[in-house]
Specification:
Helix content is 34%, strand content 17%. It binds N-carbamoyl-L-aspartate and zinc ion (2 copies). Its cofactor is Zn(2+).
Length: 345
């Protein structure tokens, strides 16, 4: 039995850090595990300009303990008003690695997102030309579409036509949750990839809905049925470089989750790599973890692999019931229960 795992240091290709004084509560957990992370721009107000992204980057850097060396890779939030010149500015800044598409209203802080993708074709043209990846929250917002079908319908209605019109656009379908998404990515060209979260590898919708409603398991896209989870595990552990690690760690205060209308988002940065190791071990594929966590993402983004390593040991530890979050608290994934793998400090 494998009890120690040494991996090239991984990166997190989908992360929410929020802003303000809570940054010092949130950034260190990621920095201890990951060298770099793609920082999602869905703040209030959203990060829509290069200037805003560069200022946000400085606030993140200032929130990490000395010598951690964590590097935030910034993104811009697409709106109906984004102009192609902003894409050029972003590319030239040297610190912006992608642009994020939120269909308006699809998820947390997506109200400023895109209403008419058709009107953004000049911007998409610029992205394609400059080979700046488009990161996609792939769910339709059509209220007549069942929430469990919103990813599948988005692929058919929006993503397929988009890739038809922009065949060389680099696209990451973020936090995929369905067998259909897995099939779509596998069938696509080399410029199409997907991130997969630890919670979608470990949990199905029973965690959210069976035996009482469990708001800390509520995220978007919502957890799906077991067959979809199995398809995600198969994709993540397949060695296919189109699938890579993106935690979608998305902290919300306990009070914003435990309420009549709870926010979408699961916080997992405190144990992210350890939880992926559990999922890969359960699938009998620990030897595939390093590719998924440390090689495929840099390969897609055209960045070098990290030089140093991290070590996980099979020593169970108990996740705290809650964590500090500014003046509030945060309920971490697995709070109060055990995680099988431990990060060696
Ligand atoms: N995943 C989520 O449920 N929530 C994310 C937004 C997102 O990634 O869709 C958040 O910012 O809280
Ligand atoms: Zn999303
Ligand atoms: Zn996210």
């Amino acid at each position: 039995m494998v009890t120690t795992l040494q991996l090239t240091r991984p990166d997190d290709w989908h992360l929410h850090l929020r802003d303000g004084k809570i940054l010092t509560d949130i950034v260190p957990a990621t920095g201890r595990r990951f060298a770099r992370a793609i920082i999602m721009p869905n703040l209030r107000p959203p990060i829509t300009t290069t200037a805003q992204a560069l200022a946000y980057r400085k606030r993140i850097l200032a929130a990490q303990p000395k010598n951690l060396g964590f590097e935030p890779l910034m993104t811009l939030y697409l709106t109906d008003n984004t102009i192609p010149e902003e894409i050029t500015r972003a590319r030239n800044s040297g610190h912006i690695y992608a642009v994020k598409l939120y269909p308006a209203g699809a998820t947390t802080n997506a109200d400023f997102g895109v209403n008419h993708l058709g009107k953004l074709y000049p911007v998409l043209e610029a992205l394609q030309q400059q080979q700046l990846p488009l990161l996609v929250h792939g769910e339709v917002t059509d209220p007549t579409v069942d929430i469990f079908d919103r990813e599948r319908v988005f692929i058919d209605r929006h993503l397929s036509p988009l890739l038809h019109d922009f065949p060389a656009l680099r696209v990451v379908l973020e936090h995929i949750t369905t067998q259909e998404a897995v099939e779509f990515i596998k069938a696509g060209a080399h410029n199409i990839a997907a991130t997969i979260t630890p919670h979608h590898l470990l949990l199905n919708r029973n965690a959210l809905l069976a035996g009482g409603i469990q708001p800390h398991y509520y995220c978007l896209p919502v957890l799906k049925r077991e067959t979809h989870r199995q398809a995600l595990v198969a994709a993540a552990t397949s060695g296919n470089p189109k699938f890579f690690l993106g935690t979608d760690s998305a902290p919300h205060a306990k009070t914003a989750k435990e309420t009549a209308c709870g926010c979408a988002g699961i916080y997992n940065s405190h144990a992210a790599l350890e939880l992926y190791a559990e999922a890969f071990e359960e699938a009998g594929a620990l030897e595939k973890l390093e590719g998924f966590a440390s090689f495929h993402g840099p390969g897609f983004y055209g960045l070098p692999r990290n030089q140093d390593t991290v070590t996980l040991t099979k020593i169970p530890w108990q996740v705290p019931d809650s964590l500090p979050y500014g003046d509030d608290t945060l309920i971490p994934l697995r709070g109060g229960t055990m995680v099988a793998w431990r990060l060696a400090e």
